[in-house]
């Protein structure tokens, strides 16, 4: 039995693998990291496109995959400044953990190994 097949876990094996798959794509990882590194709590598509040097259509495609994978979520409208045109996105709690404890930790480990 896989650890997440336990019925007492919050995420199923399929949920976890969908998130890993979503963040495993280089372009989608760039979008997730742009949201993670942005100083504000919510980020719009044009802001992400500026950070990643990609067009808004490409960013929207990546966002859709990351939302489907449970890495990003659209912020609740009550949290978005009324002057903002369009939705804002933020990392889910699981998406933040996956980045910090998974992918970014792997980059740190790779840098440590390179220093040896």
Describe the structure.
Helices cover 59% and strands 8% of the residues. It is mainly alpha-helical and 116 residues long. The chain is built from five helices and three strands; from the N terminus they run ααβααββα. The longest helix has 23 residues, at 93-115. Helix 2 (26-37) packs across helix 3. Strands 1-3-2 form a three-stranded antiparallel beta sheet. The chain has helices at residues 13-24, 26-37, 45-52, 56-68, 93-115; strands at residues 43-44, 72-74, 88-91. The chain starts with 12 loop residues before the first helix and ends with a helix.
Task: Lay out the secondary structure.
Blueprint: H1 13-24, H2 26-37, E1 43-44, H3 45-52, H4 56-68, E2 72-74, E3 88-91, H5 93-115
Antiparallel strand pairs: 1-3, 2-3
Helix pairs in contact: 1-4, 2-3, 2-4, 3-4
């Amino acid at each position: 039995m896989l650890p997440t097949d336990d019925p007492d876990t919050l995420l199923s094996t399929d949920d976890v693998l969908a998130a890993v798959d979503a963040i495993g794509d280089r372009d989608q990882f760039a979008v997730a990291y742009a949201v993670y590194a942005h100083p504000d709590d919510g980020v719009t598509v044009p802001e992400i496109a500026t950070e990643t040097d990609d067009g808004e259509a490409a960013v929207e495609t990546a966002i859709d995959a990351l939302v489907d994978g449970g890495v990003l979520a659209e912020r609740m409208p009550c949290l978005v400044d009324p002057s903002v045109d369009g939705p804002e996105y933020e990392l889910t709690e699981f998406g933040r953990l996956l980045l910090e404890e998974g992918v970014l930790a792997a980059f740190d480990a790779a840098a440590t190994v390179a220093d040896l």
